[in-house]
Structure formats: C-alpha cells, structure tokens
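Sample A.
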Amino acid sequence: MEFLNKIPTEVIYVSIAAIGGVARYLNHYLNEGTFAWRHLLAHLIVSSFSGYMFYLFAINILGFPDGSLALISGLGGWLGVEAMKMLETIMKEKIQTKE
C-alpha cells in the first residue's frame, strides 16, 4: 500500500469525482433503463472536471478543512454540470460585490 503515498492528492479527488459521476449515471440508468457507453464516458469526463473544480473552490476560496474535501469532490462529480453552474453563480456574486 506504500504506492498510494506516491499518488498526487489531486488524482485521488478527481477519481472520487469520477466515481460520483458514474454513480449518478448508473442511478439514471436504474431509473430510466437506457445505457450507453458514450454517455457514461461523457459523464465520467464532465464529473471529473466539475468535481476537481469543486475541490479547488472548496480548498482555495472557501477554506474547507481537509477532512471534507473527498465529500466535496464526490458531490461535485455527482452534480456534474450543475456544480459548474453553482460555482458560476457564486463567482458572479463575489465579483459583483467587489465592484
């Protein structure tokens, strides 16, 4: 298990975000009954990106403690595009209050 110490922290959080996205897609599959590999791949890419952005936002801007970062990146992965819309809204509000 020593090899885990050599994995960059960001890779771990991106992986957690990807799992969140896959979980959301599989939940959709269980409810709707339609499965497509290309949609799963698209969910995987979007959720990895959005989960990582959620992670960076939480750690750098909101100052969340390290213990909550896995939860934040998984949530960002689950939310996918909705996570990015949420971050966009927060950032717009922060920029408007500074003006």
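Sample B.
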Amino acid sequence: MIRAARGAMALLLLGPVGALASVVPFCQYSTNASGRIEDARNRLHDAWAAADLVAVAVAPEPAAPGQRQPVSLRVVIKGPETSRIDLVGRQCAGTACRGLAVPPRTEFLLLLRRLADGTFHKVDGEGNDACPNVFLVTDGAAQIGDRRIPVPALRQYFEQRPPPIAFPGR
C-alpha cells in the first residue's frame, strides 16, 4: 500500500517535470527556441509589435481567484484609448498558473493581447510568469531589464528596437 502511494506520488511529480522539459519555447519571443532559460533573452521589440495594448495601469483591488481583474489605465502607449480593461482571470492548479493578475494599487507597464472574450492577457507566453510583459513603474519610470525608462519616452524606446533583455532573475 505504501509503495503504491509512493509510486503514485512519483508519477504526479514527474508530470510537471515532463511538461517543463518540452522543446516548446517558454516564451514566444525568447531568443532561445530550445525551451531553456539559460542564455535566453526576450525580444522586447517583437513583443511590443505584437501587443494589442501597451499601457501603464493600476488595479484598484486584489484579483479574486479565477475572476477577471479590473485595471485602470493611466497612460495608453499603444492601442485603444480607454480608461479601464479587465485582465483574464488567474487560475492555479498546484504550482501551475494561467491568466494574469497584478498586485493592487501599484503601477505597472503591461504588454497585452486582447482575447476573444474581451479580456486581456500577457502578449508573450501562456501562463509563464518568466515572460517579461509586466514591468514595475515607480516615480514615473518603468524598470525594463536594467534600464529605467520615463513613461513619456516608452513609445520611442520600443520603436527604436531595444536590444533583447534578460528574463527576470537572470
């Protein structure tokens, strides 16, 4: 009985490991198509070009699990001029999460794509938080890689084809 339980637990743990070992790139705009993060960078200009909406936004409240999170747009850099959107609901199963949620009352620069249901999701990756599509904004500047870009200069920064940036934690 104990051996069977241990075997079942091993299979449960190997499932996510097998998925992580896939050859599918972890982020659509990664410079490394092998799916490994070593030496990979994010092609930020390509993510910018593919985004339906790029904006500085703030969520007034925390996200409820599985529910859309409303965010207020402070500055629209690319996309439809609107004052409010909903981020797709974040759903987690174990350690794997899909969707998008941002901490409340904190400004972020978001690179987003519009989904068929009208909600917005990160432009790059499918539930992978390593894909840099959300950047902290403090004192009127976004922290992108090792650079701080003033909000009024963001459009020019993206359009000048910035070099690929390291993934978070690299």
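B remarks: The helical segments are 2-20, 44-50, 154-159. The first helix runs from residue 2 to 20.
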